């Protein structure tokens, strides 16, 4: 079994078309078809059901596809690892992070890393912790900054706690502060308040809703479904208040009033995650070190 054969197999599986797959991998279509047939002979099973104008995966093909993707991702990582041995002058890092971490934590750290290693490309995948864990598992990311606890804990991943960050309430400067203007707002003070809420699957949404329910009430949303920048914009416009990480609120700057939450408050734990069976590439390990030492 050759890497080239797996690359051709994945291309056909993704395009469901031999000619388009050949174009995608820059090879003649007869050569691609020959390599696929050779792979099928070696495995002793057909990988595709071939009907005129309709290419589908067999059960064997379905079983091979995630494994082939992981093997190709690991081979690509190995190639970059070797290239990076020359004093980290080249290579890339595939880093996943939740949107709020991208807004609050990453800009300063990535600027410092880029200043030190300008030849390394930074590829950022912004998504929720659940999606990032899946991408780590299949080898599509080198590192991910996720919120603990993970939605689906896995022994295949190693996590290292990075920081524990408190959450604050942001509101429009013209709007009254919930709780009668006290220096700190209690979660109970949010009952009956208009909340601007993140989309489903957002870690902050789940944390805020759970905190409100623990106080015995369902939160009232005036706007919901946004990403971080949208939520902050809606708050600035006076559509309601929102619970966000302190780093995000601090970086957001003008146009927002920031009020702490009264003790015990709300917190979230951010961790660095990577696959347990494969060490991150050298450049990713250097970024990991900078994040842990920040």
Instruction: Provide the gyration radius in Å.
Output: 24 Å
Number of strands: 11
CATH superfamily of the largest domain: Periplasmic binding protein-like II
What proportion of the residues form beta strands (DSSP E)?
Answer: 15-25%
The assigned structural class equals alpha/beta
Helical content (DSSP H or I, runs of 4+): 40-55%
Uncertain segments are: none
Indicate the CATH architecture of the largest domain.
3-Layer(aba) Sandwich
| Name of the level-1 CATH class of the largest domain | Alpha Beta
CATH names the topology of the largest domain as D-Maltodextrin-Binding Protein, domain 2
Number of helices: 11
Brief overview:
The protein is an alpha/beta fold and 294 residues long. It has helices at residues 3-15, 18-24, 29-43, 59-83, 99-104, 106-116, 129-137, 203-214, 228-236, 246-252, 282-292; strands spanning 48-51, 54-57, 92-97, 121-126, 143-148, 157-171, 194-198, 220-226, 242-245, 257-260, 267-275. The mean pLDDT is 89.
Describe the overall structure.
The structure is a single chain. The chain folds into three domains: about 5-65, Arc Repressor Mutant, subunit A, CATH 1.10.10; about 85-165 and about 270-290, 3-Layer(aba) Sandwich (D-Maltodextrin-Binding Protein, domain 2), CATH 3.40.190.10; about 165-265, 3-Layer(aba) Sandwich (D-Maltodextrin-Binding Protein, domain 2). With about 290 residues, it is α/β, with parallel strands linked by helices. It contains eleven helices and eleven strands. The mean pLDDT is about 90. It has helices at about 5-15, 20-25, 30-45, 60-85, 100-105, 105-115, 130-135, 205-215, 230-235, 245-250, 280-290, and strands at about 50, 55, 90-95, 120-125, 145-150, 155-170, 195-200, 220-225, 240-245, 255-260, 265-275. Helix content is about 45%, strand content about 25%. α1 (about 5-15) packs across α4 and α2 packs across α3. InterPro entries: LysR_HTH_N, LysR_subst-bd, WH-like_DNA-bd_sf, WH_DNA-bd_sf.
């Amino acid at each position: 079994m050759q890497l080239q054969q797996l690359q051709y197999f994945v291309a056909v599986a993704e395009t469901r078309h031999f000619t388009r797959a050949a174009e995608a991998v820059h090879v003649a279509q007869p050569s691609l078809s020959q390599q696929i047939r050779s792979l099928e002979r070696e495995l002793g099973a057909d990988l595709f059901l071939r009907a005129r104008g309709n290419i589908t995966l067999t059960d064997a093909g379905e079983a091979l596809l995630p494994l082939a993707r992981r093997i190709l991702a690991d081979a690509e990582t190995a190639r970059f690892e070797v290239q990076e041995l020359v004093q980290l002058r080249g290579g890339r890092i595939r880093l996943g992070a939740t949107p709020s971490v991208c807004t609050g934590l990453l800009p300063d750290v990535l600027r410092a890393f880029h200043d030190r290693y300008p030849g390394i490309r930074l590829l950022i995948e912004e998504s929720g912790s659940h999606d990032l864990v899946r991408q780590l598992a299949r080898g599509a990311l080198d590192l991910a900054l996720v919120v603990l606890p993970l939605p689906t804990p896995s022994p295949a991943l190693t996590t290292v706690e990075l920081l524990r960050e408190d959450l604050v309430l942001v509101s429009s400067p013209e709007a009254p502060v919930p709780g009668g203007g006290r220096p700190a707002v209690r979660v109970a003070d949010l009952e009956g308040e208009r909340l601007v809420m993140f989309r489903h699957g957002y870690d902050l949404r789940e944390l805020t809703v759970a905190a409100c329910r623990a106080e015995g009430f369902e939160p009232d949303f005036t706007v919901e479904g946004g990403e971080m920048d949208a939520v902050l914009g809606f708050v600035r416009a006076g559509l309601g208040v929102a619970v966000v990480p302190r780093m995000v609120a601090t970086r957001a700057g003008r146009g927002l009033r920031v009020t702490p939450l009264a003790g015990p408050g709300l917190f979230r734990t951010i961790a660095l995650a990577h696959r347990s069976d494969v060490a991150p590439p050298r450049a990713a390990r250097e970024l990991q070190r900078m994040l842990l030492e920040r």
